[in-house]
Amino acid sequence: MATEKLTEYERRRLETIKRNEEMLVSLKIHTRLSELSAAFKRQRAEKSYKVSPEKKPKSEEPVVIRRSLRTRGLPPDAPGLGDEIIELRAKPSKPNSPPKPSPHVLGPFRMRDAYRGSGSDEALIKTISRRSQVNSSDESVNGQENDYKDQISSGLHDGSDWSYSNSTVRVLEDNLLGCSTGCESIRVKGSVDLGSLSLEPENIARVVPGRIMAVRIFPSTEMTIIAAGNKFGDVGFWDVESRNEDRDGIYLYHPHTAPVSGILVQPFSLSKIYTSSYDGLVRLMDVEKEVFDLIYSSNDAIFSLSQQPNDANSIYFSEGNGVVKMCDVRVGNTSASWNLHENRINSVDFNSANASIMATSSTEGTAGVWDLRKMHVDKPKALKMVCHRRSVQSAYFSPSGNCLATTSFDNNVALLSGANFEDISMIRHDNQTGRWISSFRAVWGWNDSYIYVGNMKRGVDVLCTTQKRIIFTLQSQHASAIPCRFDAHPHKIGMLAGATSGGQIYIWTAPS
Predict the structure, then answer these.
(1) How far does the signal peptide extend, from start to end residue (predicted)?
(2) Structural domain boundaries enclosing 399
(3) Residue 217 near residue 487 (C-beta atoms within 8 A)
């Protein structure tokens, strides 16, 4: 039935195909094709590839290049080439250059070699060195030192906010900051009128290129210098008071090869500035010696840097996953190491009232309070642990040491208070900065009343610790970027420095 439905053309086509197949079978074409295919496969398997001969070294003989009169700029009737030929001798092979030294073993190098700024840095070196020197021959200052310490001790013990404006006290305070032994760094305390804080155009400067990771104000009343470290390993200094028509007061250095994670200005000697980096190095910028010295090196990244308020010889830093180490800067060796968290530690801070109490924050979502006097066990136990739902970026003690503020990506700023930090309050705040902006870190001002933290609208939110909410926002038409990292001047009430991801520094100030 199927054949009857075919057209005449289709029947003839099928007959032709059948006839061709019978012819192929009779000629054994399929068999011959199978044999040829098998033989070709065997030949490919047995084929040996030739090894290309070694390239001959370039001849050391001179290569003679003949140049025409036209290309040499001579008229056609000029004499021939004669003996005038150009010889291009083969370039001698360059000796193998020695491998570059690893940045983890770099020793001291001069500040001049790390300087990347325009002009000279002599003015910065002179300013810092002059303020760092201690006037030990001033008998009147030395005679008042004990009285000043007694006043400070009484202020600390009674828990009240205090500040001094007497010029004699300010001079004494600056000398105390320069002491190398036997005295502590004193931080001025007091309240500030939030409405009076302002951002003026002259207090804005681009200090480093790119995103700022760390910012620090020099603890001095006689000069205003701000240090900032960026994600490229640069450390910039802004001498605010030296800015004029001839000089912008900006000095840029490149001591690291990875993001700068911490800056520490030695309060006992302002000429010593410690920096830590993701490259695993801790360096000391000694301005008086004009060198960058290597204090510590590691194969793991270093994420934070801190120092006890009464110890000029030791620094503390977090390394790798959850490890805090103590290093003696005099010998460059770590004398203690503690594994406190499961993941990286983003901040390390010490209590001003009790230098043995330390706070840490971790990416694992926790912040802990630790007693260094009880850290001899393999797995130290925290005095207090606060848990967030996401990464904790910072944990800082208040000026009195009675409170602790933590900042987390779970959009909360936690406030710990009480005798043993047993009271925990969560203050709601949007901490989502994205990948291109440094994470927010809430810092304390000049008393235990206010906490300052950036917002995504280019302002600074002020959190009240008693009302547990945002009560004020510092805003300015001159702010063109989002301030992320902050530092409050330890000796000038109302001076707050904010750093942006564009390398800018904003300085909010109160009327003098």
Answers:
(1) none
(2) 119-131+187-509
(3) yes
Whole-model pTM: value is 0.71
Distance CA(153)–CA(144), nearest Å, equals 14
Residue 57 pLDDT: 54
The amino acid occupying position 220 is S
User: 497 with 485: CB under 8 angstroms?
Assistant: no
Phi (first) and psi of residue 464, to 5 degrees: -90, 130
Q: Strands (DSSP E) along 287-403, which ranges?
A: 291-297, 302-306, 314-319, 323-328, 333-339, 345-350, 357-362, 366-371, 384-387, 392-397
Pick the closest to residue 263 from 324, 222, 306 (CA basis). 306
Q: What is the pLDDT of residues 170-191, one digit of tens each?
A: 333 333 333 333 333 566 777 8
The structure tokens listed for 217 are 């104000």
Residue 92 within any structural domain of the chain: no
Q: How many domains does the chain have?
A: 1
99 Cβ contact list (under 8 Å, min separation 6): none
CATH of the domain at 387: 2.130.10.10
pLDDT over 50 (residue 159): no
Q: Which is nearest to 192 in space by CA: 499, 505, 496? A: 496
Give the model's pLDDT for residue 340.
96
The backbone torsions φ and ψ at residue 457, rounded to the nearest 5 degrees and listed phi first, read: -105, 25
Residue 443 included in any domain: yes
Smallest CA-to-CA distance from 183 within 110, 241, 226, 134 is with: 134
Residue 5 counted as domain residue: no
